Amino acid sequence: MSQEVVVLGGGVGGSIVANQLVHAVSEEVNKGAVHITVISSRPDHVYQPLFLYMAFDQAVPAEAKRPERSILDPRISLIVEDATAVDTKAQTVSLKNGQTLHYDFLVIATGSKPSPELIPGLAEAAHWFYDEEPALKLRDALAQFDGGRVVLTVGLPHKCPVAPLEFTFMLDSWLRERGLREKTEIVYTYPIGRVHSLEPVANWAAPVMTERNIRPEVFFNMESVDPASRTITSLEGKTLKYDLLVTIPPHTGQKVIMDSGLGDKGGFIPVDRHSLLAEGTENVFVVGDATALPISKAGSTAHFEADVVAANLAQRLRGGLGTRRYDGKVFCFIESGGDKATYISFTYTNPPAPKAPSEMVHYFKLAYNRMYWLSSAGVM
C-alpha cells in the first residue's frame, strides 16, 4: 500500500514541494510505494509578481500563467477542484465535488487572498494589483489619469512586503515619463510610525521619498472610504481626499482554512518556525502565505520553506526523522523606478540591508520573471 502525500495548493510553494519531492523519492514513486497528489483550485499556475508590471502595461496576462499540469512532473496526480474541509484527525481532505482524499502526509500551500471588503467602501473605490482583473483595471485607470492626487493605502498583513514601495516608486517614474509628475501629488500612507515595517527598509526608502517629493503619511490605518466624496479616513481620525485611490488590501487566509478551524482569526495557520509543522500535528506541513509566521508573505518565502519541507518529507517517507530547519530566509527584489532596483535578503537572525539601486538588479529581476517557470518546476 502506497504512502499518500497530498499537497493542497498549486501555487509556488505547493508546486515546488511536489516537484522536488517526486524527484527525491523517484524510486519509491516509480514502484508505487509513494503517491503524490496536488489539489489546485484553478487549472492555471499564476506568477503573481507580474501583476505589478501589468498595472503599468509592462506585462500582459498570458505571460503570468501556464497550465498547472505543465508545471508538475507527469508522475504527480493533479486534481483541479476547491477543497472544502481538512480533517487532521481523520487525515482527510474533502473536495467540493464530494470526493474525499486520505493522506499520510499533508502539505498546505493555500496562500492568502486580498480582502478589501474588510474596509467599508474600499472594494468599491480603490484599485489594487493582486490578481489579473484588478491589475488590468488599474492599468486602464492609469491610462486615463491626467493629474491630481494619488493616495496609496496599506492594509496588514499583505503579500510581498515591499509592494507598496515598488508601486509608489514605479508610479513616480511612470508619471515623469508622461510629463504628469508636476500635475500629480503622491501620498503614501503606512499603518505604523515609519514608511515600512522593516526598519532598514524604511531608513532607505524615506530619503528616496523626500528626494522625489512623495508625501508620507504614517500612523494611517484604514477605517473607511467614501466613494462619493472621494475620501479615505483612518482609525487615527485623518481624512485624505483622492483623485485616484490605490490600495494594498489587507489579506486573509483561504476559506477552507477558516472553515476547517485550522487558522487564527485571519485564517493563517500557526506552525513551528523551523519545522513548518502545523501546531499539534506531526504530519501536516504548511508553506508560504498560509502560515501565521511573523515573516514576509512572499514568493521567495514559500520557495525557501518548500525546499525544507520537500527535503524533510523525503527523509520521513524513507524512514528518517526529517530534521532540516527553516531559518526564516526571505529574498525580495525592490523595483525603485527609472529602470533601477535593489533587493533585500534576511533571516530570523540577520536583518535586511538594502543596497543602492542599480540597472543590473532591475534587469536581473526581469530575467527572473522569465526564469520563474523553472523554479516552480523544481529545477532551480
Describe the structure.
This protein is α/β, with parallel strands linked by helices. The protein folds into two domains: about 5-110 and about 255-330, FAD/NAD(P)-binding domain, CATH 3.50.50; about 115-250, FAD/NAD(P)-binding domain. Helix content is about 30%, strand content about 25%. The strands form seven sheets. Strands 5-2-1-9-19 form a five-stranded parallel beta sheet. A four-stranded parallel beta sheet has the order 13-12-11-17, with helices on one face. Strand 12, helix 8 and strand 13 form a beta-alpha-beta unit. It is globular and about 70 Å long. The two termini are about 30 Å apart. The model has no long low-confidence stretch (mean pLDDT about 95).
Please name the defining characteristics of this protein.
21 strands; FAD/NAD(P)-binding domain; five-stranded parallel sheet; alpha/beta; globular; 11 helices; 380 residues; 2 domains
Largest sheet: 5 strands, parallel
* Radius of gyration from CA coordinates: 21 Å
Poorly predicted regions: none
Distance between the termini: 32 Å
What percent strand? Answer: 25-35%
Query: Care to count the β-strands?
Result: 21
Q: Number of DSSP helices? A: 11
The figure for the number of domains is 2
Pfam families: Pyr_redox_2 (PF07992)
InterPro entries: FAD/NAD-bd_sf (IPR036188), FAD/NAD-binding_dom (IPR023753), SQRD (IPR052541)
Domain FAD/NAD(P)-binding: 4-128
GO molecular function, one term: oxidoreductase activity
